[in-house]
Amino acid sequence: MPDIEGSDEPGYEGGEQTPSRPRHIGAYSEMLVSSVLGLIASLVLSAEAITLAANPAATFACDLSSKISCGAVASTWQANLFGFPNAFIGLIAEPVVITIAVAGLARVAFPRWFMVCAQAVYTIGVVFAYWLFYEAYFVIGALCPWCLLITVTTTLVFMSMTRVNILDGNFGSGIQQKLARPLRLGVDVAISAVLIALMAGAVVLNYL
After folding, report:
1. Are residues 21 and 107 in contact, defined by beta-carbon separation less than 8 angstroms?
2. Contact, 129 vs 41, CB < 8 A?
């Protein structure tokens, strides 16, 4: 959602009055909710991966059909790209995002280098999430509901983190000046909605 950019009161630095940082309440709240949901999905998928390793014939509550099946996706090489279940990555990444979101809501200012690095890592994460969606949709021929949830939450976190970094000038003042107005008008929200709607439409069209 668009941010509440107002600040409570001016700050002070070196005895002089300085503008306080934007709070980005909407963006950080979205990051928090999305990352918590992503962590829950990662926990479920990790538990299922362990169960599947012990019993390859195991079935799960999300195995609704041959096309909507966590087990069918989890048994493929794409689900274990680095030699371990992809969900384990979420167990590491999501708590970091939760920490950033909670700290952001508490008005903690992270160093610019930290936020740029977080953006770079999460950009890799969102590309990875959409690659997995592509593989599941076009190659595996089955979809995992928990994986779909992670794709959605990854999209939302990426857009919110990008919003914060742009409005805080972490990518440079030039980008900040060019994109601040479109962001405050909710362009990023519209892009997120379109991406999720397209993904949902594709799922309904071929898998439901």
Report:
1. yes
2. no
